[in-house]
Amino acid sequence: MNWKHIGLTTTGLALSVALVACGSDDNGGSNGDNPTGSADEGMLSKEDILNDLSVISGIDPGAGVSQGAERALEAYEIDNLTLQTTSTSSMAEQLNQAIQNHEPIVVTGWNPHWKFAAFDLKYLDDPEEVFGGTEEIHTIARLGLQDEKPEGYEVIDNFFWTEDDMGEVMLEVYEGTDPEEAAQNWVDANQETVDGWIDGVNTVDGEEFSLVLVNWDSEVASSNVLALALEQIGYDVSLTTVENGPMWASLESGDQDASVAAWLPITHEEFFDEGAVDDLGANLEGAPRIGLVVPEYMDITSIEDLKAE
Question: Looking at the whole model, is its pTM more than 0.90?
């Protein structure tokens, strides 16, 4: 395999290996051993939560979910909490530690994500609809790609799978498998799906094709799987991991060929310039969601419940 993986960090994946793996049900809850211990320790009351909670644990400030959290604090007039922005892996580590200690925590959340398989979590209701409606994960190409690399363009345009497909790869990575290996395992088990992306496409002879992504578990899964599909028709594929802004900038400048990691219309709204890139549409069947997420053992149901009385 002749991939060139440029800048692909593994901090979040290393954390995932350290967590206790367990099965998941359709609602994202845990089956089997529950790392939260919530069944034994009971629910945390709203009073206990507000007494102990001072921050919302977010990810990088450029992410739409972080900006949504800032808007939520304002819309719901929550002045007893502040948003603490950090890396995705640091947020996940904070979540893990809080759950292990049965402590209150609020994190910026999105799905698909392995944390819903690892822990009993729930979204807080958002009656003001601060976080907006349904998200989609789109495939974005640099301008001119269709003319210059028509074979690769056709494959990325055909790329489409389900949240369950993505979840299989993410969960295997969460349990400790290398992302490339987890992607290969999925391709081996789902070659008919891959054939639907590549059948009838002309082959190439070692031509380079670059994919850029943000280091989110969902995008690591999709990018590695798509890279394998492109490799099957003869491309030499590189994966480059950057932050949100640079991902979009690299597509606009033509430094990168494509990305399957564009969350629209909310998360990446501030970066998306319709005339500067080629939007090929959604690549995932299912409705990704963003919002504020808490462990099930916290006896609150709405963002409104975070406001001190």
Answer: no
